[in-house]
């Protein structure tokens, strides 16, 4: 390449950058959000929320690609194979939810502790480090995809373990970032004031970070490896994450409805007792078939069957509080998503989990679309909903604390987004459940789980129809997401009425 | 009348939460130590890696109401008898390769993973390999060039080419053979092996 070529490229790329900058400025002018309405901690939180929404989109996009491949197996064959799409689908989900949680915590600790975030500079650096690492990991997933059977592949490409595929360098990076986050939380409460919510939050974060370490090791013995792998996955999503959203929910109910602190904190303790009391040993329901001793059938079956109880309690809690306060709130979309969370958590994690948790039925449902059905409703119902509720709380503040309740402009948007997203996920859940029933019956019970049996079940018309319905409802979910983003960017724009201060009662 | 009863007080539930959590965790730690000690490679439930030198089957035991792995006489893999250390290395290469090729996001392993391709728990024993004599060869060929040796069972779903070397393919097969010998508490149920067919 000679220098004249280079001379041509530099101005060209400059022009491109300028254009991009103009578009970005136009976009900012259109959205018209004023960051001076936010505290510095809240400004950091909304950065996390922005990345969360982008990753949410990635989750839906790659989920759609994988869903298409179930119907047209030749689609993107050897370009973006099913395993790549599925990995990005579930990883984007885990990471966007974590971004949402971290953002929510940064948002609420200033208010909760009564002081600004301690170590904010480090928190901002950690955000960019984490976001850079996530971007790099996804690019490697998409463009390098797989590596030879060597340790270096585990370090730099992917670890090949469902949900925590991130290569080991990223594991270490994520742990470092989480330690900064943990320091921010502890130091902020220590400088300001501690509360019941703060105490539960800190203890839960210790468990959450500590558990992640259990998933970082390679073992030849698959039984041992899956044992520790479930420590991370189960004790995250069925224990520590649930408590984390309990914390977020407790704080949100005080803000949204003005529920008394004493009431939400007592509920929070009850939930922690029930959640950890059932969830920690409920871990055993993942140990039925991986080579572990038989006593896990009893321990896992019994305790995991209790796991829905705290979720029932949370529904009672949310509905009771909303009823006592006559649904009077200044943020209708946030309250609606909180209620969606209470029901979604109960049905998705509770009922759908209970349906196949006992070993007598799990023997036939394990490793079929039953799990996918449960996974879709539970992750959405328990975690997507509460994050979306928080996005609405954040945008309200970002707009300067404007009115977002009865008589708000363009309210149809958030209502339709809520409806489409929920209908889409419920539709996918039912379609996958039908596929799961069919698989359990044909592949497992009749054909005895051979490869021939597996494909006999996959080729059944009822299974194939179910995959068609899943794709359709996936599209509805995506439509709901697009509407949600539009609504989040525009809600409260031009609204002049301010919210009155909520008093706790 | 206005006093909060003990069972409804914040401090009562705080204590309960701490004790229940700590108690559950202690029980989990104890069970973990017990479980790990009973499932090391070479234990009754998880055989030593050199089990790849033996014939493995999975048979229904009427008295137990479930299928159990059955370890038989010598049946060398690729015509070679492996020492325990050699076997461990080969299984290790195979296990690592299943991770670096991201097998688990299409297949399930011990029933865990994605649901786009068949379960691998008892793949070594599957009737799809036609006969015990043809099995090793078919598996190597399939793993190294899945597109041209596709086994789609009428589904049009083909495994993509994952650039698996011959040594890696042999490792994967050793890993699958070893995994088929693990006592999985009767999962999968009613599985008819390649041996039962013959």
TrEMBL record, chain A:
Coiled coil: none annotated. It holds the Pfam family COX1. One of its GO terms (biological process) is aerobic respiration. GO terms for molecular function: cytochrome-c oxidase activity; heme binding; nitric oxide reductase activity. Signal peptide: none annotated. Keywords: Membrane, Oxidoreductase, Transmembrane, Transmembrane helix. This is Nitric oxide reductase subunit B. It comes from the Bacteria. One of its GO terms (cellular component) is membrane. SUPFAM superfamilies: Cytochrome c oxidase subunit I-like. The chain crosses the membrane at residues 48-72, 92-109, 121-146, 166-186, 198-219, 231-254, 266-289, 295-322, 334-355, 375-395, 416-437, 469-489. Its EC number is 1.7.2.5. InterPro entries: Cyt_c_oxase-like_su1_sf, Cyt_C_Oxase_1.
Automatic annotation (TrEMBL), chain B:
SUPFAM superfamilies: Cytochrome c. The chain crosses the membrane at residues 16-36. GO terms for molecular function: electron transfer activity; heme binding; metal ion binding. It comes from the Bacteria. Residues 89-180 form the Cytochrome c domain. The keyword Iron applies. Keywords: Heme, Iron, Membrane, Metal-binding, Transmembrane, Transmembrane helix. InterPro entries: Cyt_c-like_dom, Cyt_c-like_dom_sf. This is Cytochrome C. It comes from Candidatus Methylobacter favarea.
């Amino acid at each position: 390449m000679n220098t004249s070529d280079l001379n041509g490229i530099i101005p060209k790329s400059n022009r491109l950058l300028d254009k991009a900058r103009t578009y970005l400025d136009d976009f900012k002018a259109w959205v018209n959000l004023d960051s001076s309405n936010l505290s510095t901690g809240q400004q950091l939180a909304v950065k996390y929320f922005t990345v969360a929404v982008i990753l949410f989109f990635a989750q839906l996009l790659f989920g759609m690609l994988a869903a298409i491949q179930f119907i047209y197996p030749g689609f993107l064959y050897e370009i973006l194979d099913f395993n790549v799409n599925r990995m990005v689908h579930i990883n984007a989900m885990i990471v966007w939810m974590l971004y949402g949680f971290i953002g929510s915590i940064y948002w609420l600790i200033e208010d909760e502790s009564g002081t600004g975030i301690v170590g904010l500079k480090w928190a901002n650096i950690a955000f960019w480090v984490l976001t850079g690492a996530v971007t790099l990991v996804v690019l490697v997933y998409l463009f390098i995809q797989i590596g030879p059977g060597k340790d270096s592949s585990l370090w730099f490409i992917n670890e090949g373990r469902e949900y925590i595929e991130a290569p080991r360098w990223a594991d270490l990076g994520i742990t470092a970032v989480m330690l900064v986050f943990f320091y921010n939380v502890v130091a902020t409460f220590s400088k300001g004031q501690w509360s019941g919510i703060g105490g539960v939050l800190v203890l839960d974060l210790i468990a959450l970070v500590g558990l992640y370490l259990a998933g970082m090791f390679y073992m030849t013995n698959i039984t041992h490896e899956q044992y520790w792998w479930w420590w991370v996955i189960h004790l995250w999503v069925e224990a520590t994450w649930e408590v984390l959203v309990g914390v977020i929910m407790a704080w949100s109910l005080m803000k949204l409805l003005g529920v008394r602190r004493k009431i939400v904190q007592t509920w929070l303790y009850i939930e922690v007792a029930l959640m950890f009391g059932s969830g920690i040993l409920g871990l055993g329901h993942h140990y039925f078939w991986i080579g572990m001793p038989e006593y896990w059938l009893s321990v896992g079956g019994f305790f995991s069957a209790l796991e829905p109880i705290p979720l029932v309690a949370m529904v009672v809690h949310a509905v009771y509080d909303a009823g006592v306060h006559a649904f009077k709130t200044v943020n209708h979309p946030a309250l609606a998503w909180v209620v969606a969370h209470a029901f979604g958590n109960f049905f998705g994690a509770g009922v759908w989990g209970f349906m196949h948790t006992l070993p007598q039925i799990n023997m036939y449902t394990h490793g079929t679309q039953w799990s996918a059905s449960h996974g879709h409703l539970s992750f959405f119902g328990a975690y997507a909903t509460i994050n979306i509720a928080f996005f609405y709380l954040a945008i309200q503040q970002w707009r300067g604390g404007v009115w977002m309740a009865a008589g708000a402009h363009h309210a149809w948007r958030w209502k339709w987004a809520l409806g489409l997203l929920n209908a889409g996920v419920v539709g996918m859940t039912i379609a996958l459940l039908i596929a799961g029933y069919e698989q359990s019956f044909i592949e497992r019970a009749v054909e005895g789980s051979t490869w021939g049996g597996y494909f006999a079940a996959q080729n059944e018309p009822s299974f194939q129809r179910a995959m068609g319905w899943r794709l359709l409802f996936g599209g509805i979910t995506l439509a709901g997401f697009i509407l949600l983003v539009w609504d989040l960017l525009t809600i409260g724009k031009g609204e002049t009425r301010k919210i009155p201060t909520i008093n706790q009662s | 009348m206005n006093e909060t009863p003990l069972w409804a007080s914040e401090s009562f539930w705080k204590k309960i939460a701490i004790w229940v959590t700590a108690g559950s965790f202690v029980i989990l730690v104890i069970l973990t130590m017990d479980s790990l000690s009973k499932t090391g490679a070479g234990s009754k439930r998880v055989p030593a890696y050199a089990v790849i030198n033996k014939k493995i089957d999975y048979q229904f035991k009427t008295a137990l109401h479930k299928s159990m792995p059955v370890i038989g006489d010598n049946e060398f893999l690729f015509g070679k008898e492996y020492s325990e250390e050699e076997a461990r290395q080969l299984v290790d290469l195979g296990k690592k390769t299943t991770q670096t090729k991201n097998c688990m996001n299409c297949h399930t392993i011990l029933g865990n993973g994605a649901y786009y391709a068949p379960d691998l728990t008892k793949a070594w024993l599957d009737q799809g390999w036609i006969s015990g004599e043809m099995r090793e060869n078919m598996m190597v060929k399939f793993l190294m060039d899945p597109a041209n040796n596709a086994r789609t069972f009428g589904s049009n779903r083909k495994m993509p080419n994952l650039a698996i070397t011959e040594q890696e393919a042999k490792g994967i097969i050793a890993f699958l053979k070893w995994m088929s010998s693990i006592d999985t508490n009767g999962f999968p149920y009613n599985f008819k092996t390649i041996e039962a067919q013959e």
